[in-house]
Amino acid sequence: MSKIIEIKKVHIRNLVLSFLLGFGILYGLEHFGQFSYISVYSHTDVPTDVEGITQTYNTYGDKVSQIIYSTFFNNEIKTNGNGFTIYDFSFKDTEFNKYSIKSYYYTQAFIKDLIYGIYISFGLFIISLFFTNFKIKII
Predict the structure, then answer these.
(1) Mutual angle of helices 99-112 and 9-29, in 10-degree steps
(2) Separation in Å, CA 56 to CA 39, 51, 68, 104
(3) Contact 81, 40 (CB under 8 A)
(4) Chain-wide mean pLDDT for the chain?
(5) Which of 67, 74, 64 is nearest to 33 (CA)?
(6) Which of 67, 139, 138, 136 is nearest to 108 (CA)?
């Protein structure tokens, strides 16, 4: 006795759509990560306290040695400073705040968080299976 497994076209369509939608949602979520940086130089003031504590500070012209992007799922993408300064991170309408620059970090985060895209896709597919197999009526 042989068993037949029946796969409907709607299920294949929903599987493909759930993967497209799941990875699209993941790429959108990656835009909610946070950028931080480590600067190259820090200037030291003359001690002003009685205890002799020195204070360090950075100026807007100081170069950035490392750019760190923390993804939505708490992974980190680290790159070198790429010639950016603290000024680029502090104000809008600078070279760093262009989407063409940030899209590199979003894409790298997408690749690093790919497993979450698969989870989202399977979750969407299971929900679509539930609603294609069962009809819900509210009376």
Answers:
(1) 120
(2) 12, 16, 21, 32
(3) yes
(4) 86
(5) 74
(6) 67
Hey, what's the torsion of the CAs at 116, 122, 126, 132, to 10 degrees?
Answer: 120
d(CA 33, CA 68): 10
Strand partners, 37: 67
3-state secondary structure 75-138: CEEEEECCCCEHHHHHCCCCCCCCHHHHHHHHHHHHHHCHHHHHHHHHHHHHHHHHHHHCCCCC
Which DSSP symbol is given to 1? -
Per residue in 2-37, pLDDT (tens digit) is 888 888 898 899 999 999 999 999 999 999 999 998
Distance CA 15, CA 7 (A): 11
Amino acid at residue number 126: I
Sign of CA dihedral 105, 107, 110, 111: negative
CA dist., res. 77 & res. 104, Å (int): 10
